[in-house]
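forwarding from the other thread:

> can someone predict this with nicotinamide-adenine-dinucleotide?

sure thing
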Amino acid sequence: MSKIRLGILGGGGDSLIGVLHRVASNMYDRYEIVGGVFNPDYNQNIEFAKQIGVNTNRVYQDFESLIDEEIKKPLEERIEVVSVLTPNFLHFPMAKKLLENGFNVICEKPLTTSYEEAIELETLQKKNNTIFAVTYTYTGYPMVRHMKHMISEGELGEIHKVDIQYYQGWINPVIHDPELRKTVWRLDPKKAGISSCIGDIGTHAFQMAEYLTGKEVKSILSDLNTLYKDNTLDLDGTVLVRFKDNLKGVIRASQIATGEENNLSVAIYGGKGAYKWEQENPNFLYHLKDDEAMRVIKPGNTYVSEVAADGTKLPGGHPEGIFDAMGNIYKGVAKALRKETSFKGEFPTMRDGVRGMLFIEKVVESNQKGNIWLSMESK
Ligand SMILES: NC(=O)c1ccc[n+]([C@@H]2O[C@H](COP(=O)([O-])OP(=O)(O)OC[C@H]3O[C@@H](n4cnc5c(N)ncnc54)[C@H](O)[C@@H]3O)[C@@H](O)[C@H]2O)c1
């Protein structure tokens, strides 16, 4: 079967996330990167394409030209799916034009810079019936998939408490320097949107909460910290969340948690047991019970669920990490594009992206209005 023709917008040699997508797309030999716009500067764009071995005939000046030129090609040559890996404010115009022209899309989170834009994309996607993934990367880990599967099978009983923390400290040296903090796009509302910390990482924690429990958050109350008067976007936040019935939780995110690297930690507590998992040690899933010693579940063993086994390439004891997690998301999208059988939730969808945008907006609004409870009912 021919490889899926992938185009990439953003993710140039100067970017953080580009390499993750390139490696992930190659991981199961399903995709070939055939074109893109890796950088707003055309010369850098061409240089980078040569460096990674992409034919420069299909490297374009900007995303509009990519779409206009690709659409003229016959279907069997045309780019089939485009990954959008630019700063946040470009996700919406890029994804919109791609959807309007019938392209499938893999888009980085947060989906857009507003809930309204997200709804517009969702409406377009439903109309055109295209595949749209939003790369909430951490759902690609085998142990996260195992956790979701076992929770849905009732292993933990009724879930009562969700505690998801995402702590980083990288912004400390930036935020405490008045000049440096003006130079970072994640702190610029025109490029990042209305939030920094919650938009960048709190949204991962929120998506994880809904993904693992299979339930929607119904209301939230937030408390955010911006530290300095000239900095308008949040750097830290604590959000109380209520699902339906007696399921409540807390989402904690920070970019000023000194010394923390990428500490996404998940704890799900139910009547019959609990799961704990940490992104920095992703091959260890802890299963807790009242009356038994704690068990450690690891990928590559015969006892893991089918969905976890499908996302594990080597036998137990060979650590898999963030590249493998993203590889599994690309694999899920490949199955959808080629209409192959897949497991439920193999890649986060437009709906996850839309819910993420609603979360960001409500969290910022709750904080602005004096830390009040707000409804999270979706349109
Ligand atoms: N899923 C995750 O875990 C994860 C992790 C990090 C970043 N992200 C998301 O990925 C996106 C990019 O983040 P990053 O940290 O890689 O940013 P970055 O600033 O490191 O890189 C952005 C890239 O986009 C390119 N670019 C900018 N404007 C462009 C344009 N008009 N056309 C084409 N390319 C353009 C830049 O040249 C650069 O290569 C953000 O939305 C971010 O939230 C997701």
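Residues 350-368 form the longest helix (19 residues). thats all i got for now
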